[in-house]
Amino acid sequence: MGRTCREVHEWIEEEVERPIEEWEDRQEERCREEPCNWWLLCLNKLVCWLVWVTVKVVRWVVVTVGKWVVRTVCTVVNFLLDLLGAIWGLILSIPILGGIIRTVVNWLLEIFWRAVGIFDFILSLAGVRPRKKMYFSIIVPSNGRTPLMSEAALQPWIETAIEVFDRTSNIDLRFTGICNTSVSPPGGEIILDCGAGGFFSDWWVLGSWFEFVANLCKFESNWRRRSGYGGEIIVFVIHGYSSNSLGCSMGFTHDYVTVQQAPGPFNDTVAHEIAHACGLLHRTTDGGNNLMDSGPRTTSQPDLTNWQSSVVRSSRHCTYL
Ligand SMILES: [Zn+2]
């Protein structure tokens, strides 16, 4: 079952099934306590129980059928959409042509969803921030059976990212898992240039590899990534950088960010790169307190300003649905 279907399923359980069950429990108690009125031949008590049983049966049938329909229809539709997304992704994996289309399409999606999110941005600036959600996952190249980085080593990055966006921006950052890929990167090792050269190398075979592997690993999130709305951010662990970087993001024109295998001195590298992908630039005026400081951090609980939070919250990756 795809992500969207799972969420609809959970919604039915939480918003429909559970309230009715709670009502049933209250009704059961009411019926138990209802005095038997002898002049009504105890019918009042009987009616109470009848209502209880009827609601229970109807609820069971409707919810069971409803869930089945959701599971079947949603899964089929979702699969077809993801498949279309994957085919589109294969086209985007073509070196140069695919790379250029990818960049242009991401630009257009960014402009479109920023325009849609403008009211949310203003509300957020004013301090009105209902909970939103955002998804991310990590892809680790695995040479043979040894992944470039272990799950245990990745854990602090994951936890810090979830904590930072929750605390600063009321965002429920959901981690969808680690994918160890055995598809070997071009040249065997990924040493990325994080400057302008990196932006253009994304149009060549390395960019194709990122795109192709993301398609394979995260099939379930393909159509959301293609539509841009609630598109998952993919974090690639790579071998290193040609410069002295810990991580790299090409900003909102790219759905993926990279971090280097050796855990740096800070646990917030993944959070920092995700924030870049959501449109944030560096900010070095807060004395190492800010998540977007490019220098050493002076706190384990980095902050985001009101403006930064609002930019992240109105990014296409961050949605209510
Ligand atoms: Zn940075």
Write the layout of secondary structure elements.
Elements: H1 3-33, H2 43-92, H3 97-116, H4 118-125, E1 132-143, E2 146-147, H5 151-169, E3 171-181, E4 191-192, H6 196-201, H7 205-217, H8 222-227, E5 233-238, E6 240-241, E7 247-249, E8 256-260, H9 269-277, H10 306-313
Parallel strand pairs: 1-3, 1-5, 4-6, 5-8
Antiparallel strand pairs: 1-2, 7-8
Helix pairs in contact: 1-2, 2-7, 4-10, 5-9
Bound molecules: zinc ion.
Zinc ion (ZN) binds next to helix 9.
General shape: elongated
Report the sheet with the most strands, covering strand number, pairing sense and barrel closure: 6 strands, mixed
Chemical compounds bound to the protein: zinc ion
Percent of residues in helices comes to 40-55%
Q: Which blocks of ≥5 consecutive residues have pLDDT under 50? A: none
The H-and-E topology, N to C, reads as: HHHHEEHEEHHHEEEEHH
What structural class do you assign from the helix and strand content? alpha/beta
Strand content: 5-15%
Total beta-strand segments? 8
Average pLDDT score? 90
- Could you state the CATH homologous superfamily of the largest domain? Collagenase (Catalytic Domain)
Number of helices: 10
What is the domain tally? 2
CATH class category name of the largest domain: Alpha Beta
Topology-level CATH name of the largest domain: Collagenase (Catalytic Domain)
